[in-house]
Amino acid sequence: APDARHTLPLLEGKRVGEFRVGPPALFLDPDREALARAGCRLRPAEHYRRARFVVRQTAKYPIAALHTGLPFRNTLLAGFEHPEISPEVAVALLNSSLYRALHLALRRDARQAAFPQVKVSHLRALPRPPAAPRALAALAALTRHATDRGLDPSTRAELDAQVFELFGLSASERAAVAAFVLARG
């Protein structure tokens, strides 16, 4: 909890869910000398503000949300602005069943019983979405909706339908992805 010394709110992975960032539960003493003695490093505030979305590091599959600008611990991965894929589109894709299935199928770290991991290299290896401006705009709008209002079952179904459509998956392929994520996720 914050006190006279611990004044800097610090975001951690367990406060991040699909499309949401909860309030911080940790507060850091921002004294640079105290941090150096403890072997900790605090980056300048503008470095954290550059991150447009965050992804939980300790998870079976990507769990992403738009970033609020707070400093964060190493339990989160930072996502930055990209000229072709907006942060909103990246968050939608990362939270989709298709990207979950790909991560679970391709990454041994995702199948660890204790402390499964999502790594930057895993995220970079996920497929780039097809160039489909209308579909990508719809995904961005869905991210804004889910960020503002939460992820309910109908929004989850809409997310997966839009991503499956974007990648041209057939009905049987969609069912296979859903079954795979249900069994392994």
Walkthrough of the structure:
This protein is of the alpha+beta class and 185 residues long. The longest helix is centred in the last third of the chain and has 17 residues, at 133-149. It has helices spanning 32-37, 45-50, 87-95, 97-106, 120-125, 133-149, 153-167, 171-184, and strands at 8-10, 16-17, 20-21, 26-28, 53-56, 64-66, 76-79. It starts with 7 loop residues before the first strand and ends with a helix. It has a three-stranded antiparallel beta sheet, with helices on one face. The protein has a two-stranded antiparallel sheet with strand order 1-4. The protein has a two-stranded antiparallel sheet with strand order 2-3. It has eight helices and seven strands, in the order E-E-E-E-H-H-E-E-E-H-H-H-H-H-H. The model has no long low-confidence stretch (mean pLDDT 93). Strand 2 and strand 3 (20-21) form a beta hairpin. It is globular.
